[in-house]
Design a protein that fits this description.
Blueprint: H1 3-12, E1 16-18, E2 21-23, E3 25-34, E4 37-45, E5 52-55, E6 60-62
Antiparallel strand pairs: 1-2, 1-6, 3-4, 4-5
Length: about 70
């Protein structure tokens, strides 16, 4: 996903797929500064709502509606 797709998915609260696993929604979009520049991470909420996972936006897609 690119930045605009991330924002739209977060605003809609849609479920997300990452490496074959389903997550409840995107809970945050994080911009980080490194020595080589800036990069973006997406924070995904697990289905139980007990933990989050930080992932590369390129590795996530919208889950099919169930």
């Amino acid at each position: 996903m690119d930045n605009e797709e991330l924002k739209a998915a977060m605003a809609s609260g849609q479920a997300i797929m990452h490496r074959g696993l389903r997550y409840k929604h995107i809970s945050a979009i994080i911009y980080r500064k490194s020595e080589t520049g800036m990069f973006i991470q997406a924070e995904l909420m697990d289905l139980n709502g007990n933990s989050v996972m930080l992932v590369r936006p390129q590795d996530i897609t919208l889950a099919d509606a169930i």
